[in-house]
Design a protein that fits this description.
The complex is a heterodimer.
Chain A: H1 6-22, H2 27-34, H3 39-45, H4 47-50, H5 63-84, H6 87-113, H7 118-124, H8 143-149, H9 171-195, H10 203-227, H11 234-238, H12 250-257, H13 261-267, H14 272-288, H15 304-319, H16 327-352
Chain B: H1 16-70, E1 93-98, E2 107-112, H2 127-134, H3 140-161, H4 185-226, H5 229-234, H6 236-245, H7 248-262
Antiparallel strand pairs in B: 1-2
The chains are: A mainly alpha, B mainly alpha.
Chain lengths: 365, 280
């Protein structure tokens, strides 16, 4: 039943996104990329997928320039879709941009704290997270001011509720603001896909719930792992975990009490996938003694972060087996983001002459 | 090695008595020269080993940085880059060049300007963070030059800054916090790689470099005393040709060390070094 009227508003966009999905880089194309000798070769290999987007790059561009241009292409495609979207789909796509807004807010208030030139930073903001009052952010000196003068006008305003304080903005508080916003954003998004009148009882709610739950768990785990040895207290940390997810509530509670990697590993052992991830990287961690994403570990081994990305990509790929759902757009954006990360990684390995690790990209097609 | 050193011309001596004495002096001088050359070879070995270590460290530092970029906690598509730098940043390392030990040439030391505010992280640098983007992928040969220039600046910067911002000096904060409190461990690893480079490897290399120059100077003095310099100057052109014929690592090492000597300002009397003919 739910698919009966979907195509009235969503059919065209779904078709377009499925087309976009078909030009995502495949395993064999990644294979070709890894054979490249320099960044110019990569540029040429990317020609069919990225077309003119890379044309303006200078000869042998830096990897960050390459990443910027590939991101630009993603933004263009996204804007095109957004221009066509109506109703709940338009709202859904807006939700997608909120995460970029949060990143931009964090970037700008960090810049303010660091006495940086605002203009320069505004150029560096992610275009998908742009909002009109963004330039004003640079005058805020504490969280309350930040809220009252700027964020109250933005869609992020509700995410601040109950978290206002007179604390001055310092690095710790910025991190707390960033993660609190993200937590509230995820919860709101989760609520939206499950309760919106147009989306309730459609596959979108079901699929998006699974993806968002995974995202919530991943954030909680990453926050915990990265917080060891920092000034973030356990109490502060607990407040940053989203109130849903596969780990919620027992796992999250255990995470909030974890003191080390073993503690985290124990907390996530209730969920099969996460337990497997930790088992797979378990050896690395005990040998290197550092948290996840152990960069210096063996060539073949994947870091915890890689396994999470892999899982995210598998979930996103599965979305395309469903029809009549907005979730394909979310999945496509995530797949493209990973593609950009992969391209940057391959380019970085080639630029640095570290070809033995070049295979660490994540490809699911 | 010793065979390559031409023996001093005998015709200079006038009386048999003084000739004997001169021979004796020459022998001692030659022995000293040999000892110095041996010392020099040891230093050269240390230098090449350190150079190799340096390039390995640089590559692992940049590689972990690339890893951190991939696992960025700043949001999708956000990189750990210049946009997060603190504009008020100040050098956190001091360079001390010690000239009190004439036996070892100049001794370079890099130390922390202040105790780190936080003992959780094993490092608190900032100069190397700047390097990440500024010097980017320079050839390793240039890197030591660059760092030399940069570290020399450090003390001046420090003097300017002592008066302003006594309390909560942002310069004393661990720069990794610029990128958020929850920086991934790959970024921390990368930071500690760069810190080790700036604090240990580069000063060690510079110290050895200076020691090599000192020994080299002594060798030249001895050669002058023995009247050998003339022979080296003559064979210079021949040597160039031979060098071109050499292949592989040996030639590279020779070429590199030779270049290093050529750029020495402290020895204007002998613009070109011939020490590296040692092996021939």
């Amino acid at each position: 039943m739910e698919g009966l009227y979907f195509n009235v508003n969503g059919g065209y966009l779904e078709g377009i996104v499925r087309g976009y999905r078909n030009v995502l880089l495949t395993g064999s194309q990644y294979g070709n990329l890894t054979q490249c000798e320099n960044i110019d070769d990569i540029k040429m290999q990317l020609g069919p997928s990225y077309g003119d987007a890379l044309a303006s790059l200078p000869p042998n561009p830096s990897t960050s320039a390459l990443a910027d241009k590939t991101t630009e292409k993603l933004v263009q495609d996204f804007r095109y879709l957004q221009g066509q979207a109506t109703g709940s789909l338009a709202k859904f796509m807006e939700y997608l941009t909120y995460s970029y807004m949060i990143d931009n807010v964090a970037l700008l208030i960090t810049g303010t704290l660091h006495e940086r030139d605002t203009k320069e930073l505004l150029e560096r903001c992610h275009p998908l997270g742009w909002f009109e009052t963004m330039p004003v952010l640079c005058v805020a000196t504490n969280i309350e001011e930040l809220y009252n003068s700027v964020l109250i006008e933005t869609p992020l305003a509700p995410y601040f509720k109950g978290h206002l304080s007179h604390h001055d903005l310092d690095e710790l508080n910025i991190e707390i603001v960033r993660n609190t916003l993200y937590k509230n954003y995820l919860e709101d998004f989760h609520h939206f896909v499950n309760n919106d009148s147009e989306m309730a009882m459609t596959p979108t709610g079901e699929i998006m719930s699974e993806i968002l739950e995974f995202e919530a768990d991943r954030r909680a785990i990453n926050i915990t792992l990265n917080s060891f040895g920092t000034e973030l207290s356990k109490d502060q940390r607990r407040k940053l975990y989203p109130d849903f997810g596969k780990l919620y509530p027992e796992g999250m509670l255990m995470l909030s009490r974890a003191d080390d990697i073993e503690g985290v590993s124990l907390a996530v052992s209730g969920v099969g996938d996460y337990k497997r991830f930790f088992d797979e990287v378990g050896l690395n961690q005990s040998s290197s003694g550092v948290g996840n994403m152990a960069g210096g570990s063996g060539a073949e081994s994947k870091s915890l972060e890689d396994l999470f990305y892999q899982k995210e990509m598998e979930l996103s790929k599965l979305v395309f087996t469903q029809q009549f759902t907005h979730a394909v757009i979310y999945a496509w954006v995530k797949l493209r983001e990973q593609e950009i990360r992969n391209i940057t990684w391959i380019a970085e390995c080639i630029a640095q002459g570290q070809k033995d690790r070049i295979g660490n990209y994540i490809s699911v097609f | 090695m010793a065979t390559s050193l031409p023996s001093p011309p005998l015709s200079r001596s006038s009386t048999p008595g003084s000739e004997q004495q001169k021979d004796l002096v020459t022998d001692t001088l030659s022995q000293r020269l040999d000892a110095l050359l041996e010392q020099y070879l040891h230093l050269l070995h240390q230098y090449t080993t350190l150079r190799e270590e340096l390039s390995n460290s640089f590559s692992s530092a940049f590689f972990t940085l690339a890893h951190a970029q991939r696992a960025s906690t700043l949001g999708a598509g956000r990189r750990y880059g210049q946009e997060y730098y603190d504009d008020r940043m100040k050098a956190q390392r001091l360079v001390k060049v010690d000239n009190d030990a004439p036996r070892h040439g100049l001794v370079w030391k890099v130390s922390r300007k202040v105790a780190p505010t936080r003992d959780g992280a094993d490092a608190g640098p900032n100069t190397e963070k700047d390097n990440v983007d500024l010097q980017s992928r320079e050839k390793e040969d240039d890197v030591s030059q660059e760092v030399k220039g940069q570290t020399k600046d450090a003390p001046e910067v420090e003097e300017d800054s002592t008066n302003e911002r006594e309390k909560q000096d942002p310069a004393t904060r661990d720069p990794i916090n610029w990128f958020g409190i929850l920086a991934p461990s790959a970024l921390r690893q990368s930071q500690s790689h760069f810190t080790r480079l700036v604090e240990n490897q580069i000063p060690d290399l510079l110290s050895i470099d200076s020691n090599m120059r000192r020994v080299e100077g002594q060798i030249w003095l001895l050669r002058e005393e023995l009247g050998l310099t003339h022979d080296y100057e003559q064979s210079e052109t021949k040597e160039e040709v031979e060098h071109d014929g050499l292949e592989g690592e040996e030639a590279q090492v020779k070429q590199r060390a030779k270049q290093a000597f050529r750029n020495l300002p402290s020895r204007p009397a002998h613009p070109k070094s011939h020490l590296l003919k040692l092996g021939e």
